[in-house]
């Protein structure tokens, strides 16, 4: 190699060496700069997550292409707060949370983090919106407590168990307003239905166990399960407890019937994920969360588990079965 060749080679190596840090900085800046980053915090429901991603793709956003999604999954009760803290401290455009407990965790860690809340019993009462039509602020999502939903659940339960006189209201609803709104709804309906209602509230696993024991000890004839992430997490234990004590019950989400519970009057949680994805897409396109109206779930449906009726020894009235959108054999 000639002196000239060696000099040219050295110049090329120096140029490459000088450019390398710049290239590295450009690559590192790309995700945080031109590509938006959002967080997701959810329970361990893969079909829900896939529904969100699928709808987001339909809206023009693909993870790791033109949006980066930091997804964290709560698989144990202690994981939620840790995930919320981690996401709340990241440099994210906003976070999509699956339920009210996660929203409360994120807000506690970072009150300035915008959020899409996929399901929340009480967006206004919990301080996430000034009104459903014009939320204002940095939050939007779905409010899962439309007027009359608790009355409907209590009415269906009374149809299933005409002899019921004392109904337990099991609530694991966190935050402010959701428990109270459902309780008032149930009290108003109880008189017309000829029943009395007795609330049992739990905020952790131990309290949930004590509430279930108290329901049986107090001689309740039936049970209505209010909204609450804690009860969803422990749905199998609740359903098994009700079956063991021959306690007919109506639940908040279809997954309770799928776990063997008697019946549910519930929204389509997969569709709620799609709605959340459409809200997220609007924000990614430049909309402000506070300008996006909060909606209720588009519809509720009755699901009945036929096997549960056999275990309870109580065939359901044909009029009730006729209302079922789905009967699990």
Number of strands: 12
As residue ranges, the low-confidence spans are 1-32
- The order of strands across the largest sheet is 7-6-8-9-10-11-12
CATH topological fold name of the largest domain: Rossmann fold
Instruction: Assign the CATH class of the largest domain.
Output: Alpha Beta
Q: What is the first-to-last residue Cα distance?
A: 83 Å
Q: Tell me about the biggest sheet?
A: 7 strands, mixed
What is the number of helices? Answer: 13
Approximately how much helix is present in the residues? 40-55%
CATH superfamily of the largest domain: Response regulator
User: What is the domain tally?
Assistant: 2
Describe the structure in your own words.
There is one protein chain. The chain has a seven-stranded mixed beta sheet with strand order 7-6-8-9-10-11-12, sandwiched between helices. The protein has a five-stranded parallel beta sheet with strand order 2-1-3-4-5, with helices on both faces. 46% of the residues lie in helices and 19% in strands. Helix 10 links the parallel strand 9 (249-251) and strand 10. It has helices at 3-32, 46-58, 79-88, 100-109, 149-160, 178-193, 205-217, 229-233, 235-244, 254-258, 269-284, 306-312, 318-321, and strands at residues 37-43, 68-74, 94-97, 115-120, 139-143, 166-171, 196-201, 222-225, 249-251, 263-267, 300-305, 326-328. By secondary structure, it is α/β, with parallel strands linked by helices. Helix 2 packs across helix 11 and helix 5 packs across helix 6.
């Amino acid at each position: 190699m000639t002196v000239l060749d060696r000099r040219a080679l050295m110049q090329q190596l120096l140029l490459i060496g000088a450019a390398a840090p710049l290239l590295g900085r450009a690559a590192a800046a790309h995700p945080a700069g031109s590509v938006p980053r959002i967080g997701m915090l959810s329970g361990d429901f893969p079909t829900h997550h896939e529904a969100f991603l699928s709808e987001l793709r339909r809206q023009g956003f693909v993870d790791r292409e033109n949006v980066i999604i930091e997804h964290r999954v709560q698989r144990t009760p202690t994981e939620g707060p840790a995930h919320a803290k981690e996401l709340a401290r990241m440099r994210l455009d906003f976070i999509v949370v699956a339920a009210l407990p996660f929203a409360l965790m994120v807000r506690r860690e970072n009150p300035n983090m915008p959020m899409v809340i996929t399901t929340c019993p009480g967006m206004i009462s919990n301080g996430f919106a000034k009104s459903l039509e014009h939320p204002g602020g940095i939050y939007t999502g779905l409010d899962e407590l439309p007027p009359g939903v608790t009355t409907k659940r209590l009415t269906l339960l009374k149809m299933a168990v005409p002899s019921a006189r004392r109904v337990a209201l099991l609530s694991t609803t966190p935050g402010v307003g959701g428990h109270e709104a459902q309780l008032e709804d149930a009290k108003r309906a109880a008189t017309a239905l000829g029943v009395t209602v007795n609330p049992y509230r739990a905020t952790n696993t131990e309290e949930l166990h004590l509430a279930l024991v108290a329901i049986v000890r107090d001689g309740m004839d039936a049970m209505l399960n209010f909204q609450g992430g804690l009860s969803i997490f422990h749905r199998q234990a609740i359903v098994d407890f009700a079956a063991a004590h021959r306690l007919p019950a109506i639940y908040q989400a279809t997954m309770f019937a799928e776990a063997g519970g008697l019946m549910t009057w519930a929204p389509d949680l997969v569709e709620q994920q799609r709605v959340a994805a459409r809200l997220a897409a609007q924000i990614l396109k430049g909309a402000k969360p506070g300008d996006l109206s909060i909606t209720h779930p588009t519809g509720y449906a009755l699901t009945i588990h036929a096997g549960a009726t056999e275990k309870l020894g109580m065939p359901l009235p044909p009029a009730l079965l006729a209302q079922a959108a789905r009967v699990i054999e």
